[in-house]
Amino acid sequence: MKLYALNVLYKGPNSAIWLKSAYDLQSFSFFQRGSVQEFMAFVSKTIVERTHTPARQSVKEGEYMSHVYVRADNLAGVVISDYEYPHRVAHTLITKVLDEFATKVPSSSWASGTEASIAFPQLNLYLAKYQNPREADAMTKIQEELDETKIILHNTIEAVLERGEKLDDLVAKSEGLSAQSKAFYKTARKTNSCCTFG
After folding, report:
1. Which of 2, 76, 90, 132 is spaced 20 to 30 A from 83 at the CA atom?
2. What is the rounded distance in angstroms from the CA atom of residue 178 to the CA atom of residue 123?
3. What is the dotted CATH code of the domain comprising 3-191?
């Protein structure tokens, strides 16, 4: 079981805004890490933009899972994990991180914030701590809340996109992905290896 990314975003009216992110990409080769991180960031932002407010969902893509929670105040969290990582623990983590983020970072700065302007060092600590899912066992209050929450499971990111939209087209048009990351995505799709999100 593995967590790869933990991201906090703000869902603005037209696009999602990056507030903070943490990655653990040690399991990828040194030369792949930059492209993998960039692609995971792209997928996180896309899923937040396509998720209704408020909502929770989990999107399965190959051997990876993207868990997202967009709160009523438009604060959003995304966890990218392997398929074996428990969904409930991933959503428990997102809820805890967003609650703490909301208490430490004023909501007035969310819409205009950047990763550089927002201080929230706890994100890296959470990513490290939750590599072991049993760390969440003490959080019964949040688990009870999750029992009442329906988590929507999509088989692919395509199900989250708007009708007629394709991930390949979004990747090709994206200004947020470098040419290297676009090439990595195409190669990954062909070889059906790491990060086959589409």
Report:
1. 76
2. 25
3. 3.30.450.50
